[in-house]
Amino acid sequence: MHIYLLRRIIQLIPVLLGVTLVVFLIMQLIPGDPAVLLAGEGATAETVAAIRHELGLDRPILVQYLSYVSEVARGDLGESIRSNRPVLEEIKVRLPVTIQLATASIVISILLGLVAGIISATRQYSAWDTVLMLVALLGVSLPSFWIGLLLIFTFSVKMHLLPVAGWGTFQHMILPALTLGASGAAIVARMTRSSMLDVIRQDYIRTARAKGLKENIVIWKHALKNALIPVITVVGLQFGAMLGGTVIVESIFAINGLGRLIVDAIRTRDLPMVQGGVLIACFIFVMVNLMVDILYRAFNKRIELD
Question: ABC transmembrane type-1 domain spans which residues (predicted)?
Answer without folding.
Answer: 95-296
